[in-house]
Design brief:
- The mean pLDDT is 85.
- The protein contains four helices and three strands.
- The chain has a single domain, classed as Winged helix-like DNA-binding domain superfamily/Winged helix DNA-binding domain (Arc Repressor Mutant, subunit A, Orthogonal Bundle), CATH 1.10.10.
């Protein structure tokens, strides 16, 4: 596989992973306190050591809001009466977050187990045939 193909596959995997986990990450932060989108984005990036840069938080928030897991409200924040839309997790959002975290941990453990078992198989194959390079 070429270096370009490797890079594209890696980026694709990362993008899919972020899309799949973004509702959980969003609810996780909102579980701490209500936030506006820019603050959510900053927190995700900061806490992930600049790995979790997401430009698509609005669709995530809108979907969570439609599902009843997040609520939106406006709050005046400056002297010139500028308002900002804050998002807060609902009680059903907190329950959903618990379910998602449990399922995430189960899936992560399963993937780790599969990876570990694959590593053991590779090591056994290498011991049996040292000329084979995987």
């Amino acid at each position: 596989m070429s270096r370009l193909a490797n890079k594209e596959a890696s980026q694709s995997f990362e993008e899919y992973f972020k899309r799949a986990t973004s509702p959980m990450m969003t609810l996780l932060l909102l579980n701490e306190k209500p936030m506006y989108v820019y603050k959510l984005s900053q927190e995700l990036e900061k806490r992930s050591n600049h790995t979790y840069k997401m430009n698509f938080l609005y669709p995530v928030l809108y979907r969570l809001q439609e599902q009843g897991y997040v609520t939106e409200y406006s709050q005046e924040i400056t002297e010139n009466h500028r308002t900002r839309n804050y998002y807060a997790i609902t009680d059903s959002g907190k329950e959903y977050l618990k379910v998602m975290l449990k399922k995430y941990r189960e899936l992560l453990q399963s993937v780790d187990t599969l990876i570990a078992s694959g590593t053991v198989v590779e090591e056994q194959n290498e011991k049996m045939n040292p000329d084979t390079i995987v």
